[in-house]
Amino acid sequence: MIYNPGMEALSIAEKEELQYARLQETLDRVYNRVPFYKEKFDEKGIKIDDIKSLKEVEKLPFTHKKDLRDNYPFGLFAEPIENIVRLHGSSGTSGKPTVVSYTKNDIKVWSELIARAIVAAGGSRGDVFHNAYGYGLFTGGLGLHFGAEQLGVAVVPISGGNTERQILTIQDFKPKGLACTPSYALNIAEKMREMGLDSRNNSLKYGIFGAEPWSEGMRSTIEDMLGIKAVDIYGLSEIMGPGVSIECHVAQDGLHIADDHFLVEVIDPETLETVKDGEDGELVFTSLTKEAFPLIRYRTGDIASITREKCECGRTTTRMSRVKGRTDDMIIIRGVNVFPSEMERVLLQIDGLAPHYQIMLIKDGAMDCAELHVEISEDLYTGLNGDLEHEQVLMLERKVKHEIKSACLVSVKTVIGTPKSIPRSEGKAIRIVDRRKKDPAILS
After folding, report:
1. Peptide bond into 419 cis (omega under 30)
2. Where is each AMP-dependent ligase C-terminal domain found (predicted)?
């Protein structure tokens, strides 16, 4: 089922015609209403009429997160505050927060895109929908909430945390859909088992998971533990929030981008040149219909690839791969660049480990190094009577180091801990802890 086939199954010619018309409207809006963009365009001698095709969007300047912070709080708004109906923003933990805004029409568009997303995930009108994304300035909770209501599902606005209550609510309300971060879905499943419950014996049919990179191995683990179909959703507050793209439950092969509302590019983050379809690079988005907060060529920092091939579900939208990582999440270990998700992919293929890990960045003299902290599985730990010095554990440690070295080309010290030794997440998982300084800093 497709929620809006008129837009999700456009021909290439129809889609490009619509995108170009909306791009022209957006360029006119930002040039005449946002002084930041007028100055940028004038500096480069860019006239809106000079953009004769979608390809020529490459002539336009990039927008960076720093630009949002430099214009905090309302400097990039294209509508006066009396036309704004909602504000969202980041936490500001790494500097000034970023603030984004929405008009009534922006909320209407966002709600439709979430309705599309839930249908793509396998949901339908009449479902009960358990929304465990955080509510508040974070766009996840409220973004999913309004779109779910538009579709006609009964939303349970439970937000994150209090996992035992989440489980009780799932048992009593019998939802078909679950929405949260993938790490929290794993936490819910584990807690069910701790409570003596069969984590697969539930009403859930599909899960919509995002807000952090996750691997195919993590998907398989969640699907197996909860007995559901798990799909990846993508979004970022600066562009809209969740719903910029989502996998379909039919193919689970790339996330369908809402092409009628967003123009996507993939660039080499070093050369800034566009890369070919299928090649990894940094996602760049231009909003095509945002009224309050339109952005031109926003560099997301997310690494992925795109394909324009038609999906077996019938949608013709551009699809993006899973996010491999973020440019600012990439870590350098003895001169080798590594994304945490690459290590996750390896770890989840190794028997005897629980699907949890943390990477501790440390100093070895002047060299940056890493310790990989993992957990022994409950079954193996019980079978060995809690003996972490057992030869089987030492063999497991050697296997982890060998597999990481083979796949990621880095050597890491491996620390195998007891079950539950790594903190569980009620939101975004903490994957990296920087211990190179006196006071450990959480990086992601």
Report:
1. no
2. 335-436
